[in-house]
Write a structure and sequence with these properties.
By secondary structure, the protein is an alpha/beta fold. It has helices spanning 12-19, 64-76, 93-106, 111-121, 129-139, 144-152; strands at 3-8, 23-28, 45-49, 83-87, 164-167. Helix 3 packs antiparallel against helix 4 and helix 5 (129-139) packs antiparallel against helix 6.
Length: 173
C-alpha cells in the first residue's frame, strides 16, 4: 500500500527493514544529520538541515527553499513503495513535512481531512507551524493548510513519537 511513514530518528533502521521505503526524508540539525543508509541512492534521500524552529530567520530555521525541495522530492516519488519521513522525535518537523507532501498529492480541498487523519493516527503530532505556513504558500493554498493544522489542536505531550502510517489514499479525493 502506498504510504508515508513518519518516525523518530530512533525508529529509522527498523522502519527501513520492515517497510522497505523507496524514499527517505531526514529533517535534522546539521550536527545530527545522518548519512544515506545502505541500499538508498543519494537522490532518494532528501537531507534537510533544519532545526525545529517555528520563527523564520533563525539559524537553521526551515525556509522556503527547504519546503520547495521537499515538495519537488515528493513529486518525484511515484508511491510504488513507502516514503519514510523522520526528524529527531517524530513529532514536529516530520509530521509537518509529511502533511505538506500529502496535501500536494491530494490537491486543494483536502487539507482539513488530511490534518484530521494525522491527528487520529498521531495524537502526539505537533506539526511545525513554520513548515506548514511555508508549504501553504508554496502550494498556493491561501491559508487552508495553516487553518487545518490549527484546528487539530495541540498534540498529547510526548518526548518521542511512535511510527505513524499515513496511507496515500487518504490524500487522494
Amino acid at each position: 500500500m502506498p504510504l508515508i511513514l513518519i518516525t523518530p530518528l530512533s525508529a529509522v533502521p527498523r522502519s527501513i527493514k520492515s517497510h522497505a521505503p523507496s524514499h527517505l526524508v531526514s529533517l535534522l540539525s546539521a550536527q545530527y544529520m545522518i548519512e544515506t543508509p545502505q541500499g538508498f541512492a543519494a537522490d532518494k534521500h532528501l537531507r534537510l538541515c533544519v532545526h525545529d524552529i517555528a520563527d523564520p530567520g533563525g539559524d537553521q530555521a526551515p525556509a522556503r527553499m527547504h519546503v520547495d525541495r521537499l515538495i519537488a522530492f515528493g513529486r518525484d516519488w511515484d508511491a510504488g513503495a513507502p516514503m519514510l519521513v523522520h526528524c529527531w522525535a517524530g513529532i514536529s518537523r516530520s509530521t509537518a513535512s509529511a502533511y505538506a507532501v500529502l496535501c500536494d498529492k491530494a490537491g486543494p480541498g483536502a487539507e482539513r481531512d488530511i490534518a484530521q487523519m494525522l491527528r487520529e493516527r498521531a495524537p502526539h503530532a505537533q506539526p511545525n507551524k513554520l513548515i506548514v505556513r511555508l508549504a501553504d504558500e508554496a502550494l498556493g493554498r491561501g491559508g487552508a493548510m495553516v487553518r487545518a493544522v490549527d484546528a487539530m489542536g495541540s498534540g498529547t505531550a510526548a518526548a518521542e513519537g511512535v511510527p505513524v502510517e499515513m496511507p496515500l489514499e487518504i490524500a487522494i479525493p
